[in-house]
Amino acid sequence: MAPAVQLGDDLNVSPLGFGGMALTPVYGEVDPADALRTLHHAVDAGVSFFDTADVYGGGSNEELIGRLLRERRGEVQLATKFGLVGSPAGGYTDVRNDAAYIRQAVDRSLRRLGTDVIDLYYMHRRNLHVPIVETVEAMAELVQQGKVRHLGLSEVTAQELEEASAVHPIAAVQSEWSIWSRDVERNVVPAAAALGVGFVPYSPLGRGFLTGTVDAASLGDNDFRRNIPRFAPDAAAANQAVVAAVRAVADELGATPAQVALAWLLVQGRRLGLPVVPIPGTRKRDRIDENLGALALDLSPAQLDALGRASDAVVGSRSADPTWVSQGRE
């Protein structure tokens, strides 16, 4: 495993993390015992940075990771989130950023996780009716109380990040970023770089699409990707061009498409001047090993140019509601 990466606010994590949402029923049913074995394998392989949220599986994902922490808390940097009411699969019914809710949410998460401190606590989404300064002030109180070590924000705009950073150091922004989701590079990434904030890309493999293994036409009824415009039949067909570009580079390097997609993000971080720690999620233990192979991959300038051209041709929004993510509020 490559050396640890320092995000903002002196938070050191493994160079790849693990996104826990894959171990909830958003892509189909999950075997909890097998999911726990997957988490243990990730730690064995050198992954120390684990990401979950109170809303994943109605709290069951935090409980699952709590089972890992019982045995391996000292080997894990733990990130979780507050703010969403509802579920990824069934839909969200509310966004709560108020101080009273935050105080309740952190205690519920600590109880489910079975730990006394959260290493990185994110605001999951913005409620535009609550000033972000008030939200971060409430989050900062949790640091003072010893319940949280570092603060993070998900899907914020550059202006929101700047306002938040004036209240308390922000360790990381977590937003979707990949070869086919590059809108954050316009404003959010430069702001994070200027402020010394790390970036944690979620869905770095395009919710699986960039691996070339996802048939958008055959997604199950309970697969929430059915609601994302770029997975609609016409858009998904057009977006096979970016998959072909990723696969072509992978073939040149004797690598896999997933490794190329992750390596591209790591290069982008270096090019744009900020620490980047992707958090791919998977249910399969061999995929963890495959993903870690990206750390040793070198992409040539010509390969980077080819991937950049392909990314420019992506069709369809990354969210059914553009204001749900930073892209729609910039």
Protein model, in words:
Helix 4 links the parallel strand 8 and strand 9. The chain is α/β, with parallel strands linked by helices. It has helices spanning 32-45, 60-72, 99-113, 132-144, 158-165, 188-195, 233-238, 240-253, 257-272, 285-292, 301-312, and strands spanning 5-6, 12-13, 17-19, 49-51, 77-82, 84-87, 91-95, 118-123, 148-154, 172-176, 198-202. The model has no long low-confidence stretch (mean pLDDT 93). It starts with a strand and ends in an 18-residue tail after the last helix. A seven-stranded parallel β-sheet has the order 3-4-5-8-9-10-11. Strands 1-2 form a two-stranded antiparallel sheet. Strands 6-7 form a two-stranded antiparallel ribbon. The protein has one domain: Alpha-Beta Barrel (TIM Barrel), CATH 3.20.20.100. Helix 5 packs parallel to helix 6. This is Oxidoreductase, aryl-alcohol dehydrogenase like protein. InterPro entries: AKR, Aldo-Keto_reductase, NAD(P)_OxRdtase_dom_sf, NADP_OxRdtase_dom.
Quick structural gist:
The protein has 330 residues and is of the alpha/beta class.
What attributes characterize this protein structure?
330 residues, alpha/beta, TIM Barrel, 7-stranded parallel beta sheet, two-stranded antiparallel ribbon, 11 strands, 38% helix, oxidoreductase activity, Aldo-Keto_reductase, NAD(P)_OxRdtase_dom_sf, oxidoreductase
